[in-house]
């Protein structure tokens, strides 16, 4: 341990504060350390469907900038330009160097490479290598749901759960899986792609077609169902929430179905993996928290012991903060050893 600490001090990553208090049994007094926040900052991006989100953080995970850049063309080269241009722009602290970059992708990531994304054609673009070559810092690429799970483990884990799952419900449905405190991505990064689970429908299977769970109850699917039934092509999440609160019987029925299906997703995941906690990352449930109670009430009561089911504490930024943890761990060379970060806004 002393060798690791000495290395971090020599690198300028941590500074010594002086001797601490000895224990009641005596012995050598410990040396108090703290992270040197001026050692550098990190940048985390999330490649959304129509937008690029950016977070800047110092190495103690204190966030000092969160910005978004519209990019509706789904052009990976334009997004690369955005990420490169804004990694070291005027928002960066003067005299403090960039130390690392993390990128969240809605899709499958394997060995720091994007294998598949439902709405971005990466055209065999090696995002990590291009950013590393241009910015000269370590770069980590990871799936959005996995980063949400890392956020829950490292920022939002007051119960110290070692086995947990974070289910992200956005354009699709994905699960980040933490077992024994470590992220499990499976073969070729495909673990947790629960939205691709097939719903049995004889009328479709007889024609060689498949119906997936995310085509029924992802946020995108719910909005599409509402648009088809109301005839409103631009029906968005804000209007959905407003109509539900009227209340509107059509919207209430659609969201009751949503709660039923998500409850069954949770039940199936619980019976398969047996986590201590399932956290949900969903803008829809954040906007209508009463849906969480309906989901909980719809879960079949067959589990031998109850598990904690809740909403992540920061739906808006949990993916970015998960990326912050990943790149800071890379810089600290801690692997997935237990670390707890505080979400600080400077």
UniProtKB/TrEMBL annotation:
Keyword tags: Carbohydrate metabolism, Xylose metabolism
Gene3D superfamilies: 3.30.420.40, Winged helix-like DNA-binding domain superfamily/Winged helix DNA-binding domain
Recorded superkingdom: Bacteria
InterPro entries: ATPase_NBD, ROK, WH-like_DNA-bd_sf
GO BP annotations listed: D-xylose metabolic process
Any matching Pfam family: ROK
Signal peptide: none
Family membership noted in the UniProt record: Belongs to the ROK (NagC/XylR) family.
PANTHER family with a match to the protein in the record: BIFUNCTIONAL UDP-N-ACETYLGLUCOSAMINE 2-EPIMERASE_N-ACETYLMANNOSAMINE KINASE, ROK (REPRESSOR, ORF, KINASE) FAMILY
Described function: Transcriptional repressor of xylose-utilizing enzymes.
Protein name stated in the entry: ROK family protein
Species of the source: Schleiferilactobacillus perolens DSM 12744
Phylogenetic placement of the source organism: Bacteria, Bacillati, Bacillota, Bacilli, Lactobacillales
């Amino acid at each position: 341990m002393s060798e690791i600490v000495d290395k971090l001090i020599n690198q300028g990553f941590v500074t010594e504060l002086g001797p601490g208090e000895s224990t009641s049994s005596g012995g050598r007094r410990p040396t108090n350390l703290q992270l040197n926040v001026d050692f550098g900052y990190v940048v985390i991006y999330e490649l959304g469907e129509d937008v690029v989100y950016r977070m800047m953080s110092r190495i103690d995970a204190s966030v000092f900038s969160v910005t978004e850049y519209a990019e509706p063309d789904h052009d990976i080269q334009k997004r690369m330009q955005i990420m490169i241009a804004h990694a070291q722009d005027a928002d960066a602290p003067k005299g403090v160097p960039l130390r690392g970059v993390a990128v969240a992708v809605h899709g499958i990531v394997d060995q720091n490479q994007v294998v598949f994304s439902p709405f971005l054609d990466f055209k065999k673009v090696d995002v990590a290598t291009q950013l590393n070559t241009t910015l000269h810092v370590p770069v980590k690429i990871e799936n959005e749901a996995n980063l949400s799970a890392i956020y829950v483990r490292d920022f939002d884990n007051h119960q110290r759960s070692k086995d947990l799952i974070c289910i992200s419900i956005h354009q699709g449905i994905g699960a980040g899986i933490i077992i024994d405190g470590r992220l499990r991505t499976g073969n070729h990064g495909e673990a947790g792609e629960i939205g691709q689970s097939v719903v049995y429908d004889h009328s479709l299977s007889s024609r060689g077609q498949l119906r997936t769970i995310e085509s029924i109850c992802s946020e995108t699917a719910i909005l599409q169902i509402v648009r088809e039934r109301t005839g409103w092509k631009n029906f968005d999440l804000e209007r959905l929430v407003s109509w539900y609160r009227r209340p509107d019987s059509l919207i209430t029925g659609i969201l009751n179905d949503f709660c039923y299906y998500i409850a069954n997703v949770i039940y199936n995941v619980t019976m398969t993996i047996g986590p201590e906690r399932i956290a949900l990352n969903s803008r829809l449930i954040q906007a209508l928290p009463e849906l969480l109670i309906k989901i909980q009430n719809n879960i079949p009561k067959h589990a031998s012991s109850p598990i904690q089911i809740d909403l992540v504490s920061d739906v808006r930024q949990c993916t970015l903060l998960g990326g912050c943890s990943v790149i800071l761990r890379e810089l600290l060379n801690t692997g997935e050893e237990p670390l707890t970060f505080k979400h600080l806004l400077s």
